[in-house]
Protein 1
Amino acid sequence: MKIFMDIKKKRVNLHLIKFLKKLYKHKVMAKKENFNEQEQNLENFQNALTTTESFIEKNQKVLTIILGVIVVIIAAWLLFQNLYLTPKNAEADELMAKGQEYFAAGNYDAALNGDTIDFNGFVDLYDNYGITKSGKLAAAYAGLSYYKTGDYDNAITYLKKYSGKDAVLKYTVLGTIGDCYAQKGEAEEAVEYFLKAAKSDNLLIKPVYTVKAGIAYESLGKYDKALELYNDVKTNATSAQRGIPEVDDIDKYITSATLKSNVK
């Protein structure tokens, strides 16, 4: 029995040795493959460096010129910013403040054309300072001032020049363009701009221009589209919008459009 156990033990040891040899051989091969892969990666990297160095050597003159141009552009921009744009912005801001005073006071003629003293008007401000923030804003104020004076064509021209991103003013400008077209009797164009203005998330602006778009639709005989807009205002009205005539009187708009639709 002891002899049998010894033989069995030797067989087990023999299998274990063979297994360990195979495992060792596998590890050696894996290390060799990993080494070869690393060696290949190193060679590829060296080749890439050589190619880059060769490219730089061949194109050194062109690259130097390009780098020089970039440096000149950056330097020119910094000079432009510091020596021209910054002072220009300060001047425009001062003029804008003066124009806003006239606009707030309802003196639209002075706001547009100046006071012959130290302010030449929003139109001049836009023409001469259009590159500045206040100069761009002047286009909106000029358009709004023209609208207030009943000059709808010039109002549209300047309002369309405004390219600012102020969340309130942007949609007010679009809505006022719609007002101009409505005053000119161009209802389809009015609807287009009222609907653009109605995309505002502002609780005060959105319902006003939604209803105005509905009124313009009514003038075109499109009562179904008008009712759709009116019902949207009624459905989405909140307590925060109480006091806005377009919201408070929305049932009247719905009733009126419904009656007109039935007569049609």
Protein 2
Amino acid sequence: MKTLIRLILAIIVLAYPFVIYFGLLYFKFWQVALVVMVVAILRLSVINVQPSKHFKMGFIGAVLLLLFAVLAMIFEQQVWFKIYPIAISVTLFYVFASSLWTDKSMIQRFAEIRETNIGPEKQLYMQKLTSVWCGFFVLNAMFSTYTLLFSSDKQWMLYNGLISYLLMGALGLGELLYRHLVVMRRLP
């Protein structure tokens, strides 16, 4: 049951810009804020409490969601709802960038889930790829900020709820193709 709740909450959070846009269009402001707070509290209640990177990111995401919903309700300003995607991009940038100063980059940590023996050449490639993702998160935060400040609510929703995910998928797929067509032939 907990897995099903986690899945539903993950879908809601992924669809967050759509939830906010349509919520504000059809419901009262305080109702939208209350729903977001409930989602955040539910996320906090189902997070696996074992100390791991997944716990930390899930916890940070849920706390940010709750914080911005509370601020939106207190100040009755929708800008607080719209800051969430920016905060997530900045947080992901921080997590990925800070891993560059450790023994394993974030991409290497992901790769080690499937592959245990990663040589120095692959480690260097994974460090560079982690840097590329850092650049993506910075640009994404910038575009999200632009949509917050200078775009309509609909444009904000489309960028933060669709286009940014498509760009993320394109980067991931492009890297996968590049890795299999170019890098894997050169690296042992």
Protein 3
Amino acid sequence: MVIIMYYGRSSKYNGGAANSRGGSNASHNDSGRAFEYACMTAVYQLLRGYRDKSLIAHKPSMGLNMAKHAWGDIDRTMQAKLTRAAYSMTEQLLEYEPRLSEGSDVVSLRLQDDDAGEAGDVRDIVISRSDINWEIGLSVKHNHFAVKHSRLSPTIDFGKKWYKLPCSAEYWRAVKPIFDYLAEAQSKGQRWSELPSKEDDVYVPLLEAFMDELRRANTADPTFPRRMVEYLLGEYDFYKVIYI
């Protein structure tokens, strides 16, 4: 099954679903990149139905090369399932975005590199038309609904990275004993599953420190909510395409 959800500045669609279901023996990462390649190919073929190939700028990138390599690593059964899912996605996409079939200008199609996500752009595939200054993106996911995979660590300043406000000294004081405890356990050869009380020793105090820091940021900077949403969803309109 493929689910499409719109994320943008205007409330256009609630999304839809198309049936095309199946499992995989490939690694999650390979399957995700392979699905990106399947979607890229399906969008290209969609555009070919309305434009000569000379009017489709299929831009090369490292991301595209990695996706193509992952596509070659999965078995043909999974390739067929991802292809069906990708083509069912394009049927909905054309219904939502009729500009894909209009005009006679050049359409650019690119699969972005991973560093675009690090910079806050969550779109994997970007489709744009030059004559009307229009573009739309696809965030392609395989078997999960997350927009981002953010994490906390003893060194990552998530405040500075997410919403341009460095984490406070209070936050670092609160989380240091937690990460010190984990480092000590690791040095002793303890596995995560062997920790006696993960909820009380790690999860709860770490999340409390995280929530306290978000409250401090919200009090200190009135632009915090906007910046947080921009980090989580990006600055650009896009559809989230999920294969499950």
Protein 4
Amino acid sequence: MIDEEKTKKMDEKIENEEFEVSAYSMDDDDLDDISRWDDGGDDESCDEEADSYIRWAAGRAAAIAAIPLPLADIAPLIANEVYMIHRLAGVYDKRIDESVVTMLLGCAGGAFAGKMLASFLPFIKIGIAAGITYALGKAVKAYFKSSMKLGIDEIKRIFEEEKKKNKGQKWEPIDEDEPIEVAAGCGAMADEKLMNAGKRFQVPSVYAEPTKMLLEHFENTRDQLPIEGGWGYSADDAVVIKSEDPEINPGNPLDGISVENVFIHYRIREELEYVSPVKYHLIDWHHTGQRLVYINGRPHDVVAYVVETMPGEKWTELCDDYAAHNGYKDDPEGLAKLDARRDALIERYAGEAYMDISDWFGRC
């Protein structure tokens, strides 16, 4: 293992259940000073990412509403909304539970059931379903942006306002396995070169299952990862996220998306600190894309990400240099040179994580 102290704060966040869905920075004091890359957490990029999820969910609602059978679309539409709410919570780093999801769904009232019952014509239902989903997404976005302080009346007002604003809009249906296109500024699905670079870090198939291996190397995963299955490098190797685990959260459903990100974080550390013959220091990782796909009828999240890393000995050299010069507080030119050295040493690779979410998908 290398630089264990450098990841201490992240691990403490996870132990204290403070790891929010979009919190990927190592958050070390020295990293804040000598690193100047954008972590994607500014308000504008978060809003753009949220809008990407809302548009995608509205398109999925349009596709679901095309089902010709009366009421056959109600349950999938609600599941789609629940999924959208969890994704929006992740964008704004909010941990939510069943009561929050139920409250937000309630702000749309009986919109789906009542309006869908009133029309059995698919071309009419498509507009209704997509419009309601889009309006709810905008209201939920406003709620999370307010740090969950908006009252129910205000959420309902925004919902109704957005619904009226987009009445009559034509919605393009989106297939269930079509990727969510992440907005500009929040990254993009990784290119082939970065994906190939990541293959050399993958945990070998001969390794034990992740629950056993991660627990051996990172003890604090014991109470954080209710998972089964493989390492998630492919559909056949998907990690299965359980909504409940009697040993971890008896009777208390977990936030599945938070579990996804805790798993990815520790899978990356396993790759860099144990699999690679050259020990690396994890600098940062961030989402670049996400898609919801159905494999053998089971919903899977496929999360794409990019890792920024550096050989451990090089990282130590940079930190020692920084400390020896008192943070270059009176030497901006020296600090700029240190930044340039750091940028030249950073290695990047991309990865994907296949996660079977059928146990919690669509649940409040």
